[in-house]
Amino acid sequence: MIESMEAAQSKEQYPSGWHRTFYTLWLGAFITGAGYSMTMPFISLFISELGHFSHFQLNIYSGLAFGVTFVSQAIVSPMWGNLADRKGRKLMCMRAAGVMACTIFCIGFARSVWWIIGLRFLQGAFSGYINNATALMAGETPRSHSGWVMSAMTTAGVAGNLVGPLLGGVLSGAFGYRIPFFITGALMFLTFLGTTFLVKEHFTPIKKEKMKPIGQIFRELDNPVVIVAMFFTTMVVISSSMSITPIISLYVKSLMHNHGNIAFVAGVVAATPGLGTLIAASKVGHTMDRIGPKVVLRTGLMVAFILFIPMTFTHSAWSLAGWRFLLGLANAALTPAIQTVLTLDVPAEAFGRIFSLNQSFQAVGAVLGSVIGSVISGLFNYPMVFAVTGLILLLNMIGIWIIFRPRYETRK
């Protein structure tokens, strides 16, 4: 990663202080991803200790605890995006890290499922560290290297998602399900301090009356349909990755027939997509800078759809982990490609609002994914979740091919 960055810098000058800002935000995004994945794969097991719930109730409460964060996030993200374009993205990163440190730490003291759901709702209203860090770096990076930087920022959250479930599984198995929340809260406080004192943003505040309305910005875009398509693709991609997350530990428990170290194996299954994405991200980033993000996005969607077919029919936790690892390789081509399209096709003055709108669609996707996973698994079974998710990816892939094809044929 460092060698790639130095090679890029040798061709084009980055803003002063870029190194420190990049490393700080990368580490902050890593901690955010690790903290999230250290706690959420085990939320259903944590909730099961707070009362006597039926199978259906446990699935629904797990989905609520998981998805309510994204409901509040979807509602308030446009407001934060507007403020980011006027005041800067650094302030938004500080806000997200500080509030998340408090809410996540307090979840560790929860005595009822509604305590968890309430704090998760509050957390969502003030979250968004990774998206704002990405938007900040989009504004600090020469556009000829946007693909690599967007992929590098994605690896931060992905690497965190890889380490988090393994660490969370070990800690939960040894000390209980509350300890990971306390550790995550402390780490997010350190992220708040690092962002406050080490990040440098080259940003000139814009008065509210001088900002272009978002409607005018869309009218001035060369192809606004592509931007809208990226929003909906973000929603589908996040939904596909989140559909199994709230109930993954319960699914692993059923595959293992309630024998063995379920928390550890669930952590491995949750982490394997992150490992695949981490391995592929750098290569995918350089490929995007060479052939364009749209080709990479189409290919990634097709591969992801194909991989959901064998996952539907697996009967082993370790087999599921293997297929999810391959899915992680495909995922390396999805979110970074979407963010690169947005970076290249949108004026810098609107980055905050566009990325926040994209975050709202991420949040909606997370809610839909958690609802789909919880309801379908409660009414039918866990494999049916993969079947429905794969079908949704297929429909999205067809839509993207239709939208991109005219421009592709023009280039040919």
Automatic annotation (TrEMBL):
Positions of the Major facilitator superfamily (MFS) profile domain: 21-408
The entry's keywords: Cell membrane, Membrane, Transmembrane, Transmembrane helix, Transport
Membrane topology type: Multi-pass membrane protein
Pfam families xref list: MFS_1
Subcellular location field: Cell membrane
Coarse class of the protein's main subcellular location: membrane
Residues in the signal sequence: none
SUPFAM superfamilies: MFS general substrate transporter (SSF103473)
Transmembrane segments: 21-48, 60-84, 96-117, 179-200, 221-242, 262-283, 295-313, 325-348, 386-404
Entry-linked PANTHER family: MULTIDRUG RESISTANCE PROTEIN MDTG
Identification of the protein by name: MFS transporter
Biological source species: Limosilactobacillus panis
